[in-house]
Write a structure and sequence with these properties.
This protein is mainly beta and 183 residues long. It has one helix and eight strands, in the order αββββββββ. β5 and β6 form a beta hairpin.
């Protein structure tokens, strides 16, 4: 009885081509995994969102913006409008953007509500009006979520101190602190 060796009809070239494609696909898996991965929530990051108005006498400031807070720094910013209502018709004093800077403190109040939390953030910001002359300011953001034990003691919104003037929350403000902002 004659022994026959089993042979494949695949040539060496075809084999190497298929192996190369397989290797390339295998090498692409980590990148594909990062692309398809859901962002991980980082517990050391808190995001903030703010849309509110403050007043002092006949002057008003509207702030809108968002950003991220870590241990000692706040990043982000938004827009502002500073105007006077003494004549009954709003007259713009300054308008531009604001940028968050040093975070003095962030304190949560009560228990979280889902990913949201009540709290008070205290940070330095720069107001940058259209004339591009930066003005340093101090911003406190207050967020009160519904439910017992979640009241900060301040009005939902902000207190802004700039050039010796303190603008306190007027009307309804909307703020939100979110625990574990995407990294």
């Amino acid at each position: 009885m004659e022994k026959r060796r089993l042979t494949s009809r695949t040539s060496r070239r075809e084999f190497l081509k298929k192996a190369g494609i397989g290797s390339a696909a295998l090498a692409a898996l980590p990148a594909l995994g990062e692309l398809l991965a859901t962002p991980v929530l980082a517990s050391d990051r808190i995001s903030f969102n703010l849309v509110a108005a403050g007043g002092m006498g006949t002057e008003r400031v509207i702030l809108a913006g968002d950003g991220l807070m870590t241990n000692s720094e706040a990043t982000g910013g938004g827009t502002f409008i500073h105007f006077d209502v003494s004549t009954g018709v709003p007259v713009v004093i300054a308008t531009g953007v604001w940028k968050a800077g040093r975070l003095h403190s962030f304190n949560t109040v009560g228990t979280p509500l889902g990913l949201g939390t009540s709290g008070i953030a205290d940070m330095d910001i720069d107001l940058i009006p259209a004339n591009n002359q930066r003005v340093g300011a101090r911003l406190k953001i207050y967020c009160d979520l519904p439910g017992p034990g979640r009241f900060t003691g301040g009005a939902e919104g902000f207190v802004l101190t700039v050039d010796g003037k303190t603008f306190t929350q007027i009307g309804v403000g909307a703020t939100l602190f979110t625990i574990g902002a995407p990294s």
